[in-house]
């Protein structure tokens, strides 16, 4: 269903991406932001799933400025490599958002655009929702949102966290909820990465409930 594409950022940098088109007229566009593992099989699969329910989905390869084609799985060694790349991304965050904007422009071919992201992608999603022209956002277990918590999303935004996530203290989640009472914060009896069915921490119930809430958000604000 999907295909590899080339995106061009505002500064002229070209990066890879993955695009999945729905059959028929799209309901809107969705930018899918990767975990620390790159645009891997799971992220491509998520794009395909969004396309199956009517959305044009685009996932930008946000590590291409540091290493073209970076893509790993979920072993301890993969996690270590992903964390190094995430640190590179955080150190060059303005460029990361330039690359997100390149994906947004492509997704905008379908009309209104939402954004969703997982792990580090949840942090990028929050910042992009505040700084770019997205009509809705769904952040999954973004552990580094606090430095950006003073910023205001431009559209309806929801956040998903796992109660058992050792990497994101519930005190951090509470701070986000208190700073943004207008943004629903959902807690699940699940660990970090609960939405990824390729990880040992996958929690089918939490993933399904979070997906329903995310689709409801996008259907209301993108497809209306």
Question: In words, what does this structure look like?
Answer:
- Helices cover 37% and strands 21% of the residues.
- It is α/β, with parallel strands linked by helices and 224 residues long.
- An eight-stranded mixed beta sheet has the order 1-2-4-3-5-6-7-8, with helices on both faces.
- Helix 4 links the parallel strand 5 (113-118) and strand 6.
- The two termini are 25 Å apart.
- The model has no long low-confidence stretch (mean pLDDT 96).
Widest β-sheet, arrangement of strands: 1-2-4-3-5-6-7-8
Q: Evaluate the radius of gyration.
A: 16 Å
Distance between the termini: 25 Å
The unreliable regions are none
Q: What's the tally of helices?
A: 6
- Percent of residues in helices comes to 25-40%
Mean pLDDT, all residues: 96
> What's the story with the biggest beta sheet?
8 strands, mixed
Class computed from helices, strands and strand pairing: alpha/beta
What share of the residues does DSSP label as strand, in percent? 15-25%
Number of strands: 8
Order of helices and strands: EEEHEHHEHEEHEH
- What shape does the CA trace take? globular
